[in-house]
Amino acid sequence: MSRLIQRYQDAAHFLGKADGALSLTARLLFAAILMVYFWASGLTKLGDGILGLFSPSLGAYAQIFPRAMEAAGYDASQLGFYHWAVVTAGTWAEFILPALIAVGLATRLAALGMIGFIIVQSLTDIIGHGLSAEPEAIGAWFDRAPDSLILDQRALWIFVLLVLVLKGAGPLSLDRLAARRLASA
User: Fold this and answer.
1) Cβ neighbourhood burial of 63 (10 Å; 0-12, 13-18, 19+)
2) Is pTM, for the whole model, over 0.70?
């Protein structure tokens, strides 16, 4: 029995050294599952042409500020600078933060930013888009349904990002390359 316990402890010790693999896997899973989701969402918010980066689409305002847009008769020109700044920053975040995570640059900060983004996105869905009236969409933890849009899915998204906040980008990242360059300088 003691040999079995010792083998278990040896295996646990070996796996405890796998932080780099955990970080790399978290980044790869984020890129494979969520990066394209966020980029596709960001594309729906861009205005026309190259200046669309600075002139969000009407849909962008409706997605991020649904109640304000309804009150303004879906006329974005009725909204102020604050609304434009939030919509523009949110749109850019959907492109920049996932890209930073994918290449492993400023990973902890980018992952923390994505966690904040997902929390705001979830609150906008629940409050702004009225999902609070649809409990099955919000879901409940410790139930038999693992696929609610808000609590279940987004908790897993945040967990993957939390791994990156706590463990960093891992060995195959621009963060690690930058750290090596700074150490040798």
Assistant:
1) buried
2) yes
